[in-house]
Amino acid sequence: QVQLVESGGGLVQAGGSLSVSCAASGRTFSNYRMAWFRQGPGKEREFVAAISRTGGTSFYAVSVKGRFTVSRDTAKNTVYLQMNSLGPEDTAVYYCAAGNSVGATASPSNYDYWGQGTQVTVSL
Fold first, then answer.
1. Do the beta carbons of residue 37 and residue 90 sit within 8 Å?
2. Sign of CA dihedral 87, 116, 103, 45
3. Cα distance between residue 115 and residue 87, in whole Å
4. Each residue of 38-74: pLDDT tens digit?
5. Contact 5, 13 (CB under 8 A)
6. Which ranges constitute the DSSP H helices of 14-123?
7. Dist. CA 49–CA 45, nearest whole Å
C-alpha cells in the first residue's frame, strides 16, 4: 500500500507560480506511475500531468502543457508539480495519485491510491 500526502497549495495572483508536492510512504514508490489531477468548483476531476516510474517520461494535459512541470525524486519518495503562468482557470483542489504503468495515462480509474488534495486558488 502507498499513502500520499499533498502540500504546498495556497493563494497566488494570476501570472504567478506555485509548486505543490506529494510525499509517498512505502518502499514500493518506484513501482508506480504518478499523476496529478485537479477538481475545480462544480467541475469533474480532470487529468493534469503524469510521470513514469523512472521519471524518464512525462505527459501533460493540453491545458497546462508548457506551463506546468512534473518531476519526481525517488530517494525522497516525493513527486512535484511546478505551476507557472497561473490563471483563475487553474483554481482547484489538486490531487496526487499512484497507479500501474499500463492503460490510459489520463484515466482516473487507472490509479489505485490518492492523496487528500491541496487547494490552489488563483486570483485576478
1. no
2. negative
3. 24
4. 999 999 999 999 999 889 999 999 999 999 999 999 8
5. no
6. none
7. 13
